[in-house]
Amino acid sequence: MFKEGRFKTYLGERKDSSYLYRTKTLQIETYKNKVDTFSIFWKSNFEYELRKTTPKNKLDSIPFKVRITKIKKNYYKFKAGYLGSHFIQTGTTYITKE
Fold first, then answer.
1. What pTM value is reported for the model?
2. Which of 14, 57, 69, 94 is deepest in the core (most CB within 10 A)?
3. Are 28 and 20 in contact (CB under 8 A)?
């Protein structure tokens, strides 16, 4: 259900949001008018990994792991972070029609 389509993600409790388009193998994300393309690797229905297709620095080349913690009809909540980092980011991703 969440592996392909158009989505809007809100980070934590902030009003920051990004739009993304996801296929079976790619995720194209727009955040503050900046577009990034990621390869997406689903480990299970509840966990996936994102890797930038054209990393520009060392941080860009580190995989970003996402774990889905709650699923509802049109959204999921997640915890995520860079591989090897203790920093955890939380957010909510909604299915959109945009």
1. 0.90
2. 94
3. yes
* Mean pLDDT, residues 33-52: 95
The ranges assigned to domains in the chain are 5-95
Of residues 24, 5, 29, the one with CA closest to residue 91? 29
What phi-psi label fits residue 48: left (phi over 0), alpha (psi between -120 and 50 degrees) or beta?
beta
pLDDT in tens, 1-15: 799 999 999 998 777
Looking at residue 49, the DSSP 8-state letter turns out to be E
Amino acid identity, residue 19? Y
Which of 3.30.300.30, 3.30.950.10, 2.40.128.20, 1.10.630.10 is the CATH number of 5-95?
2.40.128.20
